[in-house]
From TrEMBL:
<comment type="pathway">
    <text>Amino-acid biosynthesis; L-leucine biosynthesis; L-leucine from 3-methyl-2-oxobutanoate: step 4/4.</text>
</comment>
<dbReference type="GO" id="GO:0009082">
    <property type="term" value="P:branched-chain amino acid biosynthetic process"/>
</dbReference>
<comment type="similarity">
    <text>Belongs to the class-IV pyridoxal-phosphate-dependent aminotransferase family.</text>
</comment>
<dbReference type="InterPro" id="IPR036038">
    <property type="entry name" value="Aminotransferase-like"/>
</dbReference>
<dbReference type="GO" id="GO:0008652">
    <property type="term" value="P:amino acid biosynthetic process"/>
</dbReference>
<keyword id="KW-0100">Branched-chain amino acid biosynthesis</keyword>
<comment type="pathway">
    <text>Amino-acid biosynthesis; L-valine biosynthesis; L-valine from pyruvate: step 4/4.</text>
</comment>
<dbReference type="InterPro" id="IPR050571">
    <property type="entry name" value="Class-IV_PLP-Dep_Aminotrnsfr"/>
</dbReference>
<dbReference type="Pfam" id="PF01063">
    <property type="entry name" value="Aminotran_4"/>
</dbReference>
<keyword id="KW-0032">Aminotransferase</keyword>
<dbReference type="GO" id="GO:0005829">
    <property type="term" value="C:cytosol"/>
</dbReference>
<comment type="function">
    <text>Acts on leucine, isoleucine and valine.</text>
</comment>
<dbReference type="InterPro" id="IPR001544">
    <property type="entry name" value="Aminotrans_IV"/>
</dbReference>
<keyword id="KW-0663">Pyridoxal phosphate</keyword>
<dbReference type="GO" id="GO:0004084">
    <property type="term" value="F:branched-chain-amino-acid transaminase activity"/>
</dbReference>
<keyword id="KW-0808">Transferase</keyword>
<protein>
    <recommendedName>
        <fullName>Probable branched-chain-amino-acid aminotransferase</fullName>
        <ecNumber>2.6.1.42</ecNumber>
    </recommendedName>
</protein>
């Protein structure tokens, strides 16, 4: 079956989908994106993801070209037309098409909205989800709280991880503190047994899965600290795991070739993996 995309108000075969060569998303990455997980045919934390999309659009001064209610209908239609039950919906909104000039064009039509769907297997056993990571300097721009499509630094970090036989690149800021993964939020159980993750500011993306896990932690009466983690603390951690929309809780069992803890998913990681999957209806 041909994959179907929604592009500028039309459902089209993905192989025939196109935008103008002067679309500002193509020319400048003047655009934002969002990823909404699908699980058993249901959009996971749809309000959280669309709320973050609104915040990213507001930061760039881009108006969504349809209402929130209409966007929800588009998301369901794209999932249905592609017969995706478990996977992700990918949304991209660009400022639109105009003559190539760096400043915002004085006259421009509606923003360009693109929605696609991709099937992914549902989350499974925590041990099967375990991955390796490397560390890399954080070379991204200063507004990582905006979910911009300008992801070249992330791409290079992820490629470095792949070349090293790892899944993720954990990024280290100029201050020597972990910011986040190239496409994930980083959590650590430090040597003293405290669960820690970095506080939110412009240097990191406010992860929707992070927010879900914070709510789960509160209900389970599990304490965590929003506190930066140094590279030395990362390497000495008892447990490290990642969260993201497409992977939920993913244990990290080695960093830069060194085992984390005993080299297997730790007890708190296992517990939180189970709790989060129960939260989203996967368990």
């Amino acid at each position: 079956m041909s994959r179907i995309a929604y592009v500028k108000g039309r459902y089209v075969a993905q192989r025939h989908a196109s935008v103008s060569i002067e679309d500002r998303g193509l020319q400048f990455a003047d655009s934002v994106y969002e990823v909404v997980p699908l699980l058993h045919g249901r959009a996971v934390d749809e309000d959280g993801h669309l709320g973050r999309l609104d915040r990213s659009l507001a930061a760039l001064g881009i108006a969504l070209p349809l209402t929130r209610a209409a966007l929800r209908c588009v998301l369901r239609e794209v999932a249905a037309r592609n017969r995706v039950v478990n996977g992700i919906l990918y949304l991209q909104v660009t400022r639109g098409t105009a003559r190539r000039e760096h400043h915002f064009p004085a006259a421009i039509g509606d923003a360009t909205l693109i929605v696609t769907a991709r099937a992914l297997p549902p989350p499974g056993d925590v041990a099967a989800a375990a991955v390796r990571a490397i560390t890399r300097p954080d070379e991204r721009w200063a507004r990582c709280d905006i979910k911009s499509t300008g992801l070249l630094a992330n791409v290079l970090a992820r490629q470095a991880a792949r070349s090293a036989g790892a899944y993720e690149a954990i990024l280290i800021g100029r201050d020597g503190i972990v910011t986040e993964g190239a496409a994930t939020t980083v959590w650590v159980v430090d040597r003293d047994g405290r669960l820690r993750t970095r506080h939110l500011d412009a240097s990191v993306l406010a992860g929707c899965t992070r927010a879900m896990l914070v709510a789960v932690l509160a209900r389970a009466d599990i304490a965590f600290v929003e506190q930066g983690v140094t590279l030395d603390e990362l390497r000495a951690a008892r447990e490290v795991f990642l969260t993201s929309a497409s992977s939920y809780v993913k244990p990290v069992i080695a960093i830069d070739g060194r085992p984390v803890g005993d080299g297997t998913p730790g007890p708190l990681t296992r517990q939180l993996h189970a709790l989060l999957l129960r939260e989203v209806g996967a368990a």
